[in-house]
Amino acid sequence: MKLYYAPGTCSLAPHISLIEAGKSFHIEKVDIKTKKFSDGGDYLQVNPKGSVPALVMENGEVLTEGVAILQYIADLAPEKHLAPPAGTLERYRLQEWLNFITTEIHKNFSVLFNADRYVAQPEGNEQLKNAIKQNLKARFALVARHMKEPFLMGDHFTVADAYLFTVLRWTKPFTLDLNEWPALAAHFARVRDRASVKAALQAESPRP
Ligand SMILES: N[C@@H](CCC(=O)N[C@@H](CS)C(=O)NCC(=O)O)C(=O)O
User: Fold this and answer.
1) Does the CB atom of residue 52 touch ligand 1 within 6 A?
2) Residues 12, 196, 152, 159: is their CA dihedral positive or negative?
3) Residue nearest atom 20 in ligand 1 by C-alpha distance
4) 68 pocket-lining for ligand 1 (C-beta < 6 Å)
5) What is the pTM of this model?
6) Whole-number pLDDT of residue 207
7) Overall average pLDDT of the 193-208 stretch
8) How do the domains of the chain map onto residue ranges?
9) Whose CA is nearest to atom 18 of ligand 1?
10) For residue 62, is pLDDT > 90?
11) Is 89-194 a CATH 3.10.420.10 domain?
12) Is the four-CA dihedral 114, 119, 122, 127 of positive or negative sign?
């Protein structure tokens, strides 16, 4: 398998999940601004959407959309409990979380990262950023209230934990302090300490 990624972006979640699943895979870096690989190749030929992640699956086909990719990876290694079995109520609970993270947290951050695309004037830009931060804070409070210990859904680390960790990393550049929600800060620290997370971050960090 091959994961197309950009360092620190949402592709970190499938990266962590592939390591957790214990599957063999390669990674290839994409410049998400130019849609090129480092050798100048055209990423749009792989994923016409231009976004990461994209995964070349075991059958050679390309799968896009993080939430689909995460569940595909989890289902490759059912013994790792990265997702509850398909068709169970618990699986719908996982999908409920994944959809919440992608639409309510990830996409609010996408607006923060790209605020100057939406508003040209600096004052408007600050207003937009503040409004989005308020949105995010409300969503963080909700996740914190529903967090089961030690992981989002209880005893097992799932792909939703990998995704939640990935989006919570983005709080730092926007000075959102996770300590406002102790359950989130504890979850973040717990996930950050996993060997899979350290390995994925190391593999994504620029080499000298
Ligand atoms: N709908 C896609 C969106 C993924 C996404 O937002 N990826 C960002 C990085 S976190 C990206 O590639 N942005 C560049 C672009 O879309 O052109 C998914 O959920 O996988």
Assistant:
1) yes
2) positive
3) 65
4) no
5) 0.97
6) 61
7) 91
8) 2-81+196-204, 89-194
9) 65
10) yes
11) no
12) negative
